Structures are given as structure tokens and as C-alpha cells.
Amino acid sequence: ARLDCWPEGLRAAYRVRLDCGRCTFCHNTDDFIQETDVPPIMIFSIGSRVECKLGETDDWFPGTILQSNNDWAQRDCPPFLIKFDYGRERHFWGPQDCIRESNVAAPKKTTELRFKVGDRVDCSVGGKHKRHGTVIKTNYREDFENGHAAPYQIQLDEGRYIYAPVDRDECVKKSNVPPPSCWICFDNEQSETNLIVRECACRGGHNGFVHVDCLVELAVAKVDKDKEPDISDDLLPFMHCITCKQSFETGSHCHSALTKAFYLIHKDDDIGSTWNKMATTMMSELLVHNEDYEDAMELLQERIASIRSKIKHSDAQDESVINWMTDLSNFLVDIAAVYEATDSLEEMKVALDESLALIEIQVDYGAPTHRKVNVLAGLGKHAELSGDKIAALEYMDEALLLARERKDFDGVRLSNLLFNGGILNIESEMNRERGLAQMSESVEIMTRLYGHDNMEVRSSRRYLQNMREGVPD
Description:
The chain is of the alpha+beta class.
């Protein structure tokens, strides 16, 4: 068995669908694959009440079977689609010991939420103070225990995000106050599919509030597709606020809409064009964030297979081969992120090793520093996931050293490197003080980029405080 995106000649004895849903490839030895007496997952009928373990938590989440596929093994599709009581529908593979019958009754119809996304509400903040805001998510989950979901996540008109713990008037009720006006069209009408949000660092009054659709239209209007893109001018509107220059947080309303628009515009461009490469990478990152791993894998495998074919059929002396090798190296880093998310560590290591080898080949051609930083950070993450924190720290230190050599290195990526490196220093017990200093520097960078009210900034600040106090995460 093999994938088209693999290097020429690389094959595995078997491709196996694990009970958890992940696909893996195995060598034909007992160290990698053995016969098992464990039966395949038991099939529940549509409408059955079940509870499942999700991710690495020990909590059980109740839900109702919406789809049940008896022939899942032959069709290579998920056995179940489950509507969980906390509000989300998701496919479920297994394994068998992570799903069982549930005695928990389904939520009653009377518990349906009063408000939908886009509705205007007044919120009780601090018990007495009333704040106006817009519902931007329903059945919102953060780091709540036992799978609890808050009825609403709300963006207040001041820009801050809060959640409503209960759906009652003393906490949240209908508002007659209109939303802030969009800074592009100056209108304040919004809908569930076209919210007015502020997801940047613009502050002062209602500055920064914008229709998601208006933001997309502005970004598209600023791009001249007929010329090679300039990162600072052409890509900026699809990644950052053009006023404050803050990056939109991955998965936010603005980030998701802009990424999808950029991909739709450029997905059919020539595979070697800068536009197409950027669109592919941005879309794969969004798919991974949304846990659409199979779609991300399919997208990247197709690109990698096409590039391998072009390299194979090109003259070795052709200068374009170096460009194809650069593209291949970048997409291998992208697909390594998918392997990481699906716990496919062996495949992750193969992709990163090949990417690093391609970079070393291109040293004489001026391979950019940021590409090697990305690969080293990926290898560090692989070492960490494999339990070798010392090796992980060595990779991370090398990546940080390279990143600091570049004054124009991306602040978001530097912040991530510092934060992860800090955690490794603390957890490996190599240098606690250095680890805390790295995490503190990371939070400072994130605060400058995203602002004090950003959810990721607040979460990182809490994590840092817990580390300082020795409180387990």
C-alpha cells in the first residue's frame, strides 16, 4: 500500500483503519501488526441514546445516533453520526470502549435556546452592569467540565467576548439597542450568516466593527490576480486587519470567511503559482483547525503527488526543479501538521525528514530561514509527542535561534515558538526560569498583536500564571 504523495518507491505492507478512525500504514512484522481478538465496534440503531469519550478526556458525553452505517468497514466511512447534547454533531469511529449505551434522557424540546447567532442581547455583567452585545455562537464550549456547553458566546459592543452560563433573563435578554455600524458600509443590519464583529486590535468607540461579507469584498477588491502577489500588500487583507495590522485568529469568523474566499479564487490557478500555494496552505490550516482532517489530507496529498510528478518528469538541470522542490518541502510541512493532529507520528516524521532534506539540498540556492524554522519546530513537536522532551527542546532551541536572527520574522510564529519552548523547558525540568521568561515574552508579543481582550491572549496569560504558581494545567 502507498499514497501517491509518498516518495517514489516507498511502500508499506498494509494500510489499516484503526478503531479510532485514523488510517495508518504498517510494516509486515509483529512489531508493527498482529492479529487481534478485539471485535469491531458494535453498531447502534438510529435514535439510540449513547455516550462517548471524546479526545483524551475521561468524561462521557451523551448524545443521539443520527446515522448508523452497518457496512462502515466496506465503505471506509464512519460508523456513526451523533448529535451530542452539548449541541454539536460529529462523526464517531470508536474504539468500542469509548462508546456505550446511555441512560441519560435526551434534552427536552423546551430547552431550545431563545436566541440564535446574530441576535442582539443585553447581558448582566458583574451582577448589576448591563452590557449590549451580539450572539456569535450557540452551545459554546470552552474548558468546561463534564462536556458542559454555555448557551451563548457573546461579543459585547465594547469588543470583549463573554459567555452566558444560563439562558435566563437575569443573565441575558433581548435587546432593542442596534449593533455597531460596519466601518466599511456604515450599515448596522446583520444576519446569522453576515455578522458584524470586531476580531482585531482596533479600539476606541466602535472602531473595527465590520460585516464579515464586507471584509471579504474589500479583500477581494484589493487584489490584482493578474500579477505576482506581494505578501505585504496583496495577502495582507486576507490575513490581517488592514487598519491595525493584527492577524485574525485562526478559526474566527473573519479568518474563516477570508480563507475560504481566497481559496475559492485561487484553487484552480496553476499549481506552481504563488497564489495557489498560499491558498492551499491557508485552507489546509483552516481544515485542520476545524478538525476536517480527511479533507485536509486529500487536498495536500493531491498537491504533493502533482509536484512529485513534475519533478520526476523534469530535467534535473532545469532551474524549475528547485522551485518544485521548495513547494514540495512546504507542503510536506503542511501535511505533517495533519499527521500530528491525527496522531500519525511515524508519517509525521517521514514528511518532516524529507522536507528538511530538501531544504539542505537548496542551501546553495538561498533557502529561506522561515522554512527551516517550521521544519525544526515540527520535529520538536514530534519528539515531544514521542516522549523525548530533551530532543524536543534541542529542536526548539535551534528553531528559536534561527528565528531571532531574522528581524522580520513573523511575530505570531515567534510567539508560538517561545511559548512551546517555555513549556518544554519547564516540563523537562531543564531550566524553569528560562521557560517562564520565554512564556512571558510570548504573551507580551501576543498582547501587542491581538490586544488584551483576545481569548487566546487571556488563555495564555492564565496558563502562564498557573505555571508560575505550580498549578497543574
